[in-house]
Amino acid sequence: MKSETENKKKRLLIFYTFLIILLSLTIYSDSLEVPFHYDDQMAIVTNYSIRHLDNIPKILLSNPTRAVSNLSFSLNYYFCKLEPFGYHLVNLFFHILNGILVYLILNLIFTSIPLIPFVSALIFVSHPINVESVTYISSRAGLMSTTFFLLSFYLFMEFRNSDFSFNKKILFYFLMIFSYILSVGSKEIGITLPVVLILYEFCFFNKNEQALSWFSAFKNKIFYLPFFAIILMAFIVRYYTIGSFFHPTFTRNPYVNFLTQINVTISYIKLLFLPVNLNVDRHFPLTTSFNFTTLCFSGIILFIFCLAFICFKNRSEISFSILWFFITISPTSVIPLEDVMSERWLYLPSIGFSIFLSMSLYRIFCRGRPLCRPSFWADRNVRPYFYAFSRSNPPSPPFITLPDGRQEVGLGGFLRKIPFITIVSALIILFFSIDTYQRNLVWSDWISLWEDTVKKSPLNARAFLNLGVGYEKKEMFNEAIAAYRRAIEIEPYHVKAHANLGTVFSRFNNFRDGIRELEIAIKINPELDAAYFNLGTTYKKMGLLDEAVIEYEKALSLKPDDELIRRVLIKVIKQREVMNEEMKDPVKAKEIKKKLSDSYYNLGAIQLMDNVYNKAEDFFKKALGYNNSNIMAKLNLGNVYYLKGEFDEAIKEFKEVVKTDPKFYKAYWNLGLVYKAKGDKVNALEVFKKYSKVEPENSVLKKEIEDLSR
């Protein structure tokens, strides 16, 4: 009979696992063709450190706080290069594995009610809030951290199972620690596992430890020490690699962050219960004062904590699910981050919600049955803390029977009670699944994703930036320019918006606006390698190879591992060598010099418009050095001298322009203004009279002559 029951349980486990896999594959089937998005460009496409699998230490050290996930990207690149399909397949694999692990863990807790683990797992894998974590390739760090988090949890449960031999328990223990290292090495959220394990034991395992002495209690917890040693090591590694325990460059007032996260937490809870209006880049305003809304939300959170405390004695599974959520969300809530709120941060916490929802459904529709059977621990002879590593037999646990004395295991009697709960659960999962599938359709295209984002967050500059990138990829350049300009309107010092706008201008040979925007970007952030690279590309298009080399070298110094920058720099240096050879040919030299003169003139004009007179003077002189008959360069060099107060030099340049082209009215006008500014009314009047012969109907000129004639 027992063997038959065990076989039924195994078949049920296999069947439920199959359904979890099937549902996951179905609702995420349209995610496999989603292109690289947003940070995928930096993490994968332009991350040259992942392209050399033979240098694993370099891969791990290129991003020490994400070392394990970085290694997975390197393996992906080795097999798939830059085809997104393979990356999405790996992400989906980890998501499915996480769903199975959720089921297996809960199946060890809720042994007599297999529907709770199954429904919890289905809610988790189908919940739309997790789309960003699964479909957004760069979110793999959270997926992998959760996988090893859950695996370590499962191994912990097996380690605490005294049915196994001492050697097997030791094996489980070391595998558990190794999994925990991988979890923390994938993403820092893994550090919350020890707290969750302690919570688990308090809720389900060791309520009798209250009677133990202080020394015995400490001895019983000694196997937790490696967890905390790993946490300490993770903080040390973070400090020595990025120079800070937290964000190296970003800070926020702790009080403001605390108030804001109160409101964010309620928003998270609302999204878990009703996942509508999902947003990849949510614009969430900071809360700077303790207002009425924050007061109400604080009351709700306190009520939830009180509920968890009240339920601890007789409804510990509810306490466990609630506190799971708050413990696992704490790293992104307590530590100030640039993003105030992000849906992908709910991936691990959503497991707690999934457990809570499935248990709530069971409580509502199947009253009278216990949720987790204390006899489970007796069946598996689980040892108390003190006997965790002991070879001897432990004392019998004090809680070994159901309150009504029943020892029922499996589905017997349960099927008669589940029709309505099954229907309700199925409807919820169906709603989540449809929403997830539709959300993946939004992710299917860069433009559709960011158009959806700016629609929901019209004051989000970063969203408009990414929308502009999407338009640029599709060669919708007018729309891209409009999106970048809107980003700058919202956030005037948005460095990437300025840089991208400058790049688009330069692409259409609007070098003046292009260089101006790129130089603004560099002023805002002198460490932005892309701005130097694109500025170098602009100079290259203008034929200014010396300036291009300088900018490429700056970009390479900021990103020495970037193979693209290195290749382009080498190519431009060779082009410069070829140009220098061509300069020896008089015919080719004349053409090259004319182009260089025009290009330097454009640079000078840009600097003049920005009131950078010394640079403008240098560029105009270079323009004249290559082509002394460049009238516009002479004219604007005179303007520079005039604006600097060097009137004699200005007069000299304007006279040369008039001599070269007697009908160039701008030169007459500027020359007259210089004489006037110098106080030489006689020469000013003479020049303006000559100008009047070129433009006799100019009313402004007539007025100047009248004023000077008095």
Explain what you see.
The chain has 710 residues and is mostly helical. The chain has a domain at 2-439. The protein is built from 33 helices and no strands. The protein has helices spanning 2-27, 40-45, 56-62, 67-80, 84-109, 115-126, 131-135, 140-159, 166-186, 193-204, 214-220, 225-242, 254-273, 292-311, 316-334, 349-365, 375-379, 419-443, 446-456, 461-473, 477-490, 495-507, 511-524, 529-542, 545-558, 563-582, 586-609, 613-626, 631-644, 647-660, 665-678, 681-694, 699-709. Helix 4 packs across helix 5 (84-109), helix 20 (461-473) packs antiparallel against helix 21 (477-490) and helix 22 runs parallel beside helix 24 (529-542). The longest helix has 26 residues, at 2-27. The radius of gyration is 35 Å and the shape is elongated. The termini are far apart. The model is unreliable at 208-215 and 370-415 (pLDDT under 50). TPR repeats lie at residues 461-494, 495-528, 529-562, 597-630, 631-664, 665-698. It holds the Pfam family TPR_11. Keywords: Membrane, Repeat, TPR repeat, Transmembrane, Transmembrane helix.
- What portion of the residues fall into strands of 2 or more residues? under 5%
Gross geometry = elongated
Helix content: over 70%
Largest sheet: none
Total DSSP helices: 33
**Class by helix and strand content?**
mainly alpha
Tally of extended strands? Answer: 0
Low-confidence stretches: 208-215, 370-415
Report the mean per-residue pLDDT as an integer: 86
**Cα separation of the termini:** 123 Å
